[in-house]
């Protein structure tokens, strides 16, 4: 391509947009970034982008194989950590919010995010190839509310755009003060943290920041300040801490290491699981992107070092750190009241009030803040169903709903915003008090598919999009009713943090069930298995049907599926199968589950009759000194037959029976917890457990 003397192609110089080069110069002086939308046919838009970018540092994201040097990454970490003057996102490849937001994060100060789109007036009814990502089997919508909102926001924000039709919107001049790099806040924060770490009784540091604020760089500079001490930096991926290594190298005037190199000077990278299994001694522990690490693991890391920094991004692309920060802060307050909490607000990679950052926050509701009342007034709470169109017409409500979902779960990402607007199977229920949002319940309608497809799903030969819970339930015993009948999966329940544990969530779910009762055959949910959470669902009448076989990478928990007991479908055989499977897996797969969770799983399981032989053997052993080997199998058979026997035992007996008998832990590994220090004491424990169980059976005259 022939370039003009200033580096711009003649194609652009001959167009009406001759002032774009000067606008970029003004952007660079302000250290700002901007969104430019090219509206028209795909090939026209690609040609325009290539004319703008020329031979400057650029990144193009597209699945068009004819698009020169374009890539379409499957994972966002493939592009994060890089910077380009021009970044092109080909909307014709599909508008995937996570990917578009990540692309924006790679634009350097003075650069453009260039979005290729059809004409804005056609956007709502445009056949976006990414829309299928938010559709379930059998759904064929003819429009996208997410894209309708995007078009509305672009118009409201007076975004820069150039249209193939000849219409364009570019300012004659970009007016913003000239800005220089200001590291004052970062330097002050580093000094404050360094002083805190050198006190006689150091406590944890909680560091929070939005993207572009220099959080990872600060960790590297902190490591440089303690150059004579051994420091470990911990994150899920080595690539995530490259910026820390880069700034450490700069501080020492040495070459930046490659992402394959795990050590530099006094800083060593280790993933969380490797660190916990090692005996490595360290002076300081740095944890980057802490919100992506399961909280139970973070708590274990707390015990490895008394000088520790937890750093996390408040607003991310694949998740959000606000909810994590709130919950982990509460843990630190309870156990480390002198912990240091600090935040980086001023951007470093670009200047404050950056147009692109502001546009991305508006488009994806990334800066939404929940405004909730300070106290619950039950008489003033209203529960209602919200249609997706209502969210399009009430952006303030949409932003409040998304803010509450973000607070409730770290893995809430900007993709979820599109699902909220574009998934036809979604039903959104809310709780309001004095017009302020206090609760959200997101429900997905599943099933209702034909018998032929249902049979294929049950045989695992088809796996259509969506219908996650229905498919998993049907594949437990080959029951196609879960597929052919409609079910309601409660996907998210979120209550304003300050108003939790006051019955709002239970009442909201009861409202959902009442509203949808005549539209579906069963209600269910899936969540990370925790004792307290499972108890919440059991109180509402839900029963466990299945537990996953792999732990979630973010939470470290096994997923569990629950179904409400009031259903016309046959769930009794599924419950019996779950009971058998659970007892089989407890000694190995679920060996490390908290005993309190095992108790909650067992206490509502279906009971079988005790055999006369079992009772006679218990009676014999309970009335004489008996060995552990004699007692254990008899006790196991009794609990297996009637798991609700656990509810009648003393708390310590529940713990001992679950840890020793059901999970098969060795007493020597749990000496202090079990309060057992010798074989004689262990024998006495088994004898006592047998006596308690036998007494409960004989006193309550349980069926035989």
TrEMBL record:
GO CC, alphabetical: cytoplasm
Entry-linked SUPFAM superfamilies: Acyl-CoA N-acyltransferases (Nat) (SSF55729), P-loop containing nucleoside triphosphate hydrolases (SSF52540)
Family recorded in the similarity comment: Belongs to the TmcA family.
UniProt entry keywords in alphabetical sequence: Acyltransferase, ATP-binding, Cytoplasm, Nucleotide-binding, RNA-binding, Transferase, tRNA processing, tRNA-binding
Enzyme Commission number(s) of this protein: 2.3.1.193
Binding site for ATP: 186, 349
Protein name: tRNA(Met) cytidine acetyltransferase TmcA
Positions of the N-acetyltransferase domain: 381-567
Top EC group: transferase
Localization in the cell: Cytoplasm
InterPro entries listed in its UniProt record: Acyl_CoA_acyltransferase, GNAT_dom, P-loop_NTPase, TcmA/NAT10_helicase, TmcA/NAT10/Kre33, TmcA/NAT10_N, tRNA_acetyltr_TmcA
GO biological process: rRNA acetylation involved in maturation of SSU-rRNA; tRNA acetylation; tRNA wobble cytosine modification
Role: Catalyzes the formation of N(4)-acetylcytidine (ac(4)C) at the wobble position of tRNA(Met), by using acetyl-CoA as an acetyl donor and ATP (or GTP).
Superkingdom per UniProt: Bacteria
Reaction equations catalysed: cytidine(34) in elongator tRNA(Met) + acetyl-CoA + ATP + H2O = N(4)-acetylcytidine(34) in elongator tRNA(Met) + ADP + phosphate + CoA + H(+)
Record GO terms (molecular function): 18S rRNA cytidine N-acetyltransferase activity; ATP binding; tRNA binding; tRNA cytidine N4-acetyltransferase activity
Gene assigned in the entry: tmcA
